[in-house]
Amino acid sequence: MDKVNVGLIGLGTVGSGVAKMLLSRRQFLARKAGIPLSLRRVSVRHSRRSRVGVDPRLITGSPREILQDPDIHVVVELMGGIHPAKEIVLQAIAAGKSVVTANKALLAHHGEELFRAAAKKGVDLYFEASVAAGIPIIKSLRESLIGNDIEVLYGILNGTTNFILTEMSRGDGRSFKSALKEAQARGYAEKNPSLDLRGIDTAHKMAVLALLAFGKTVRPDQIFVEGIQDITANDVRYAHDFGCTIKLLGIAKRDGDELEMRVHPTLLPNNHLLSSVNGVHNAVFVEGDLIGDLVLYGEGAGRFPTTSAVISDLVDVARNLKYGCTMRVPPPLPVKRIRRIKPMGQIEGRYYFRFSCIDRPGVLSRISRILGSHRISIASVLQKDRRREHIVPVVITSHEAKERDVQEALAEIDKLSMIRRKTVSIRMERG
Ligand code: NAP
Predict the structure, then answer these.
(1) Whole-number Å distance between alpha carbons of 86 and 84
(2) What is the pLDDT of residues 93-135, one digit of tens each?
(3) Which of 20, 41, 42, 45 to mutate to test the pocket of ligand 1 (most atoms within 8 A of CB)?
(4) 4-133+303-322: CATH architecture
(5) Domain residue spans of the chain
(6) Which atom of ligand 1 is nearest to the CA of 130?
């Protein structure tokens, strides 16, 4: 083989960055990969639209022209979505082509099927850009940390939500709505940011990481997910009073043969390595038995950080093709070690509660009695100034408690006549 021919499907934000690098850094990449990478064909949805920097003769409106071209060795899927991306990836594999994809939604829902197909056919399926874009977490888990037994993995994996929470924690106490507006004005949030805000995007990425870190196929619907849409500027401020910062965390923890999988806003102590990850940045924290604590930090989205990850995969695949050693790093497949996803009710942790009470004597003792009757002990209490309609926020943090006990206690407390709004609860993690 004297060169590796690449077929690119999708020429949007990421695809155009990848095309630009393949065309403008030909010699540079050939030197690094040890073999030239040649962009042979590009498939898009609207083939008549003019594309800057790409020879129109390379462009086609039909992915089939790539899938059926016997001279194309690698298909790079950058179209996004699940269908027809899934069918296209399966057809590429069936045709004996290696695949590079950035598609987290596709891998979260159908990763195991695609990895099995690639392993059966003996082709590479690489996916570094699918989680945290420029941060090399996939390669780290597949290769660098391979000798570690991983106990815990935390991720700040969504730049939009991290930007909003960072803006809300600035001195002027910005509201959620105003921070979201700012994110949209700067192009960090989509017009419909619901997948990001509700934590679904983070859950997709956690599903991909769970297979690598714990050898468990986790469907997105098996992950407990809560978004940041109900976090208020007051919660952010009170968290600061407790020496904490609120982050949307993806959390995966192994407990014997069970795996906790959850995504929710979390109070992190300010001495936690992830508490200072601000703005659109992403970070992943991994605790391995050999390596100890490890944090990878960087840009988790955007044209060039994502391009960096796709090019890294392409160079790996090209080297494997050159030396005839595809599957040198085999596709991740589940192992039988984890028996089940731990039910959310059994998860234990500390909690932050914000009760909205009417200003009346005895409120605190009623609340603490109910918490106590559900085996929840109080770590600290913060009573804030009276607000509108004589409502006083009472903020309490708990010691370790079971999620099921917490939910039962809150249901009981929220029925009290002195409680005026649904109680806000936010889970806490240790430093
Ligand atoms: P995008 O800007 O929306 O671009 C999508 C591209 O795919 C467009 O060029 C579109 O063609 C093409 N396309 C759509 N349907 C097609 C079809 N049926 N056949 C052929 N081409 C088709 O998307 P993106 O932001 O680059 O994202 C691509 C992938 O990277 C997604 O899986 C995304 O999750 C992932 N990713 C993105 C980022 C990021 O920062 N953007 C970061 C990490 C991972 P037209 O140009 O003709 O519309």
Answers:
(1) 5
(2) 999 999 999 999 999 999 999 999 999 999 999 999 999 998 9
(3) 45
(4) 3-Layer(aba) Sandwich (3.40)
(5) 4-133+303-322, 144-298, 344-428
(6) 44
Name the residue among 347, 355, 318 with its Cα closest to residue 126.
318
Query: Residues near ligand 1 with C-beta < 6 Å?
Result: 9-15, 43-46, 49, 63, 78-80, 84, 102-104, 129, 133, 301-302, 306
Confidence (pTM)? 0.97
Domain 344-428 listed as CATH 3.90.850.10? no
Question: 157 C-alpha vs ligand 1 centroid, how far in Å?
Answer: 19
Q: Tokens representing 391?
A: 């409502």
- Out of 64-78, 180-194, 372-386, give the one with best mean pLDDT: 64-78
Does residue 385 surpass a pLDDT of 80? no
Residue in 18, 42, 44 to alter for ligand 1 test, most ligand atoms within 8 A of Cβ? 44
As a CATH number, domain 144-298 is: 3.30.360.10
Helix 26-33, helix 13-24: angle, nearest 10: 80
Strands 74-77 and 391-398: unpaired
pLDDT attached to residue 173: 79
Query: Which pLDDT tens digit goes with each residue over 298-326?
Result: 999 999 999 999 999 999 999 999 999 99
pLDDT tens across 166-225, in order? 999 987 779 999 999 999 999 998 889 999 999 999 999 999 999 999 999 999 999 999
**Encoding tokens for residue 143?**
């290769």
Distance between Cα 129 and ligand 1 center (Å): 13
* Given the residues 205, 216, 253, 342, the one annotated as active site: 205
Active site residue 253: no
Residues 6+ apart with CB under 8 A from 427: 264, 265, 266, 267, 349, 350, 351, 352
Q: Residue range 382-390: average pLDDT?
A: 70
